[in-house]
Amino acid sequence: MSESIVVDGVAKQFTLRYHRTLKQMAVAKMRGRDVSNRFLALDDVSFTVQQGESIGLMGLNGSGKSTLLRLVSGVMRPDRGSVRTRGRIAGLIATGAGFHPQLTGRENIYINAAINGMTEAETRGKFDEIVEFSDISQFLDTPVGHYSSGMAARLGFSVAIHVDSDIFLADEVLAVGDKPFKKKCMERMQEIRESGRTIFYVSHAPGSVRKMCDRAIVLEHGRVGFDGDVAEGIRYLKYDEPKGTPEDDIDDELGSDV
Amino acid sequence: MSETVAGAGEPPRRDVDAPLVDPAANTGLLEVFQRRYLLRLLVRREIQARYQGSFLGMLWSYINPAAQFVLFFVVMGIIMNLREIEWFGIHVFAGLVVVVFFGETLNGGTRSIVQNKALVTKLAVPREMFPVASMLVSGFHAGPQLVILTGVCVVVGWVPDLVGMAALLLALLLMCVLGTALALIFSVANVFMRDVGSLVNVLTMFIRFGVPMIYPFTMVEDRFGAGSLEAYLANPIAQAVLLMHRAFWVGTTKDPEATALEHLPDDLFMRAGVSLLVAVVLLGIAQWVFTRYENKIPEHL
To answer: Are strands A80-86 and B20-21 parallel, antiparallel or unpaired?
Structure first.
């Protein structure tokens, strides 16, 4: 097996700006207040993921999960340390980003697939599969602006989930869509996992992490708080409080992510 | 690139035949042209979206400039007739084609990254893609204008010549390179300060009147003195407009040679060639600036 993702001593700092206009800046300077302050979103994060591993990235809101995902996907660069990845990266991040409301579903599929790194031939080959998965075939030639939010989301998901990649990143998974669609997505994720692709899955739902992942990484205030067994990771986060009804279990499994 | 090896037992194996690399690494403008397919789709998205749902569709990109041309022809050419300039409408419109191309590249390019916020903050697409796409969209809209301009010129008895076509090419190339360079810098600057968008608006206004489009360039010397002319002619946009005059307007006059002598500066090609070199260097600098500040783009959007 080979390393798929190597994160080494990564730190990422953000600048929060209090004052943006000239007037506000001047007033702040006069009163001797700070015009900006810094915030460390990730601090000395290191871990290695082997090809084919399925990682559940967990942590409370604001613990740096999304920032880490953006570093791994290459949208951002770390201020310190390094991120290295092997092979093509794709996944359920910003599904439907770049959809143009005035263009039809068909046109948007091609654009979105290209944004996700697919070639024209690849998109052609997978087009029918994408349409079938999204279940919007009769609205294919309707502008996406007329779609319901659920339909647009399904279309975005379908495109993203059909991109062939070596590393599959998943954020905001299952935050939208009805139950049958969520189920379908989970099944598809399992297929992806079984095909030996590395999965990097950001989630708040312990049930789905337990099902999907074989290793959990828990972030706490931008640092790795826990790295290891999934069940222990969930316990570490105290997400494992006893649940009551079976209904709860389903929500536990399919809970929406942020 | 990779294949799944059906091993005897768990876990499944997938051998990835690629090196460990920095996922954020990209080669800037080069990468944009490596991903031509995406670039083409983004350009087409903008063009299609503009006329989506309209009955006449793409025809509008002919109707608009045609109407503009008629207006210029009547208002500038007949009502405000400047006696010493033949076919004043063509004089104005020929310049307008490159001025509008440049202005749209600048304006669209400056806003392009902020406008594509959703993509830029979440997906690893080379960000140079957006200003470059704006330039291509503007270039696409210049096409119909050139068609109309050519049509009108032919009607009034213009015959294309080799030097003229070279002038046209040089004008477009100069505007394309310079426009892309400035769009790159302004697009990233606009992320940090949205004032840049408004500043560029003001700049476009100056560009419109700072070129010999609605007046002959000789007027500059008459009104401001000899020294001012050199500075005026150093403006690459003014050079592009004069090149357009060489390509189209000069050939429509009664005595093209005399017109060229009177209404075109000496060494026009030389000046524009130097500008093109400067623009290429500027593009290199723009790429360097862009790469330098690009990392901070997602957090400022």
So the answer is: antiparallel
Higher pLDDT, A150 or B134: B134
SS3 content of chain B, % helix, strand, coil (to 5): 75, 5, 25
Q: What is the mean pLDDT of chain B?
A: 88
Given A105, A134, A163, the domain boundary residue is: A163
The tens digit of pLDDT for each residue in B6-49 reads 444 455 567 778 888 888 878 888 889 889 999 999 999 888 88
In a domain, B56, yes or no: yes
Considering the entire predicted model, what is its pTM? Answer: 0.86
Each residue's pLDDT tens digit, B64-89: 888 888 887 788 777 876 667 888 88
Same domain (yes/no): A205, A172: yes
| Residue of A93, A116, A196 lying closest to B14 (CB–CB) | A196
Q: What domain range is A184 assigned to?
A: 3-87+166-254
Q: Tell me, what's the pLDDT at B165?
A: 96
Subunit contact B13:A83, Cβ cutoff 8 A: no
Alpha helices in chain A (DSSP H): 22-30, 65-73, 105-115, 120-134, 149-161, 179-194, 206-212, 230-236, 246-254
Chain B residues near residue A119 by CB distance under 8 angstroms = 37
Judge residue B32's burial from the number of C-beta atoms within 10 Å of its C-beta, 0-12 exposed, 13-18 middle, 19 or more buried: buried
Q: A111 to chain B: nearest residue by CA?
A: B41
Q: Which of A107, A135, A163 is the last residue of a domain?
A: A163
Interface test with A, best of B3, B115, B123, B198 (most A CBs within 10 A): B123
Kind plus residue range of the DSSP H or E element containing B7? none
State whether A166 and B1 contact (CB < 8 Å). Answer: yes
Task: Kindly report, residue by residue over B212-269, the tens digit of the pLDDT.
Answer: 988 888 888 888 887 888 899 999 999 999 999 999 999 999 999 999 999 899 899 9
B23, closest residue in chain A (CA to CA): A74
B23 contacts A89 by C-beta, under 8 angstroms: yes
Write the DSSP string, B49-64. Answer: HHHTT-SSGGGHHHHH
Tell me which residue range forms the domain holding B262. Answer: 33-300
Among B1, B20, B26, pick the best mutation site for testing chain A contact (most A Cβ within 10 A).
Answer: B20
> In the prediction, which pLDDT does B172 show?
97
From CA A139, how far away is CA A114, in angstroms rounded? 21
Domain tally for chain B? 1
Q: What is the mean pLDDT of residues B141-151?
A: 92
What is the total count of domains within chain A?
2
Pick A102's closest partner by Cβ from B13, B42, B52: B52
Asked if residue A12 and residue A78 are part of one domain, the reply reads yes
Contact B53 A70 (CB under 8 A): no
ipTM of predicted complex: 0.81
Indicate whether A182 and A148 sit together in one domain. no
With an 8 Å Cβ cutoff, are A52 and B118 in contact?
Answer: no
User: What is the CATH classification number for the domain harbouring A39?
Assistant: 3.40.50.300
The answer to whether A114 contacts B38, with C-beta atoms less than 8 Å apart, is yes
